[in-house]
Amino acid sequence: MHEISTIQQKLAALLGQVLWDGFEVAGILCLRIGEKRLITNRKQQEVEIGRYSLHISGVWRFWQHQQLIIADGDWAQPDPAGVEPSALHRFLHTFWPQSLFIRSIQLNSIGDVQLHLSQGYCLELLISSTNNEYWRLIDNDTDEHFIVEAHDDDDSTENS
Amino acid sequence: MSQTNAMQATLRQLIGGALWFHGPSCDLESFVIRVGEPRTREIQYYQLTINCAWRLRQQQQILLSSEDWLYDDDNNIEFEPSVAKFWAKHDPASLIIWSIEVKPQSGDLCFSINYDYKLDILINAAAGQHWVLHRDGLEIWRYRS
């Protein structure tokens, strides 16, 4: 895995930015962060993205005031209302739009990350695998992907 | 007694036991902990069945985790080679549990084991059943939220 200081340095770009959207694709939580811009996607549709995208494949938890409100494992929990396929999908459909400022970022020696947000929210990314990607930070201005994964002793920053 | 204290008291029974086995349990994963009573030499087996994330680490290095398996073509659980490698390297009797910490906010557990290993049980769902502990086949604790 990358050095903690390198991860810290990359994540520092998110300080003071706004997290404003989140959705799930194939088990990956995708977050939109920072200044909004319009792009044309592969389906030739205009969509709004942020300066940064954070794609989380590993274990994550979302807290408010130290209360766990949703986590990656909730994809398997049935929605109490029985409408959406899971509690996680229901949450993602109802929670946004929001404007959550990233106030501070903490990393421990394992590489677990806590993004402390406004309104008492905290997003936690946990290192939880020996062979998979945990998360990646994409700078949509430069198309740089900073990838944190189990075996990324080499330089895992790529430009696609 | 609060739920955390009661859970801690139940888990205390595992201290001094050995992390004896790890493997599939239906479509979940289990750890078996073998606890010997030194005076009577009675042996008890505890089974910790986990329905949440976990990782076994040595300091910062993750050695095994809940994501080290996949379903094979017959829908059976198949573990990554790292799992067999780990168990081939260690005599289970030497993997002694020294302490178990319950994190009050998250409900996460941290088992401290010989060789500076830590087994983290990480609660990764806001609702549902996270783990169950059996002693000699009888359920003694079920952790839900």
Distance between the termini of chain B: 18 Å
The percent range for helix content of chain A is 10-25%
User: What is the number of helical segments of chain A per DSSP (H or I, 4+ residues)?
Assistant: 2
Number of helices of chain B: 2
What is the overall silhouette of chain A? globular
Q: Biggest sheet of chain A, in brief?
A: 11 strands, antiparallel
Domain module count of chain A: 1
Structural class of chain A: mainly beta
Q: How many extended strands of chain B?
A: 12
The radius of gyration of chain A is 16 Å
Number of E strands of chain A: 11
Count structural domains of chain B: 1
Question: What portion of residues of chain B belong to β-strands?
Answer: over 45%
Unreliable runs of chain A: none
Q: Which radius of gyration of chain B do the C-alpha atoms yield?
A: 15 Å
Greatest interface by residues involved: A-B, 26 and 25 residues
* First and last CA, distance of chain A: 21 Å
Determine the strand fraction of chain A and express it as a percent band: over 45%
Walk me through the structure.
The complex is a heterodimer of chains A (160) and B (145). By secondary structure, chain A is mainly β. In chain A, 11% of the residues lie in helices and 49% in strands. Chain A has one domain (4-159). Chain A contains two helices and eleven strands. Chain A has an eleven-stranded antiparallel beta sheet with strand order 5-4-8-7-6-1-2-3-9-10-11, covered by helices on one side. In chain A, a hairpin with a 5-residue loop joins strand 2 and strand 3 (46-56). The longest helix of chain A has 9 residues, at 87-95. Chain B is mostly beta strands and 145 residues long. The model of chain B has no long low-confidence stretch (mean pLDDT 90). Classes of the chains: A mainly beta (160), B mainly beta (145). Chains A and B meet through strand 4 and strand 5 of A and strand 4 and strand 5 of B.
